[in-house]
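User:
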Amino acid sequence: MDDLTFYSNIIDSLAWPLFTFLIFLFLRQPITDLIPLIEKLRYKNWEIGFREKLDNVSLGIAKEIPDSITSGPATGANQVALSAIAEYSPKLAVMKAWSSIEAQAIESAKDTAGITISPSARPLQAIRSLQKDPSIDKKIVNFVKDLQALRNTAAHAPDFALSTESALNYASTSQAVVDYLSQKTKD
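Assistant: Predicted structure:
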């Protein structure tokens, strides 16, 4: 192998990696600007589309609880507060919306089943007791579990970015569930 062939092989081996590096170097800022818009996360065989799952839950709840989810501006003090939080931190808005479901589930479990819920297992125990309550639609309980899974994704998935729009959709869907549970415990 002469010198010319040796250099030709080295250049041939380094061309694509060097080209890829230069592309990422020049597009670093535009790519960084797109990261907050990511709502689909994929890692090995695990993939989640937060928006798609949330849309399915919202549609299901809208079918089960007519006139429950408004597409207009936020109403009520809690929804207005969640809107302000979602502008700052969409993940925090999802967490706050979920905590309102947990609080209402605990209240509903106490009121309908008369169950004393231990402090360490409160939300899970409350949701289980709602499953056993004949006045609560089982589909709604399944939607609550779906909302819990979405909350867990927002809270625990590394490098998961969430849009303000999705957080507001989650908040309005959560409020519909809270209103439903509140109404069922009054009946």
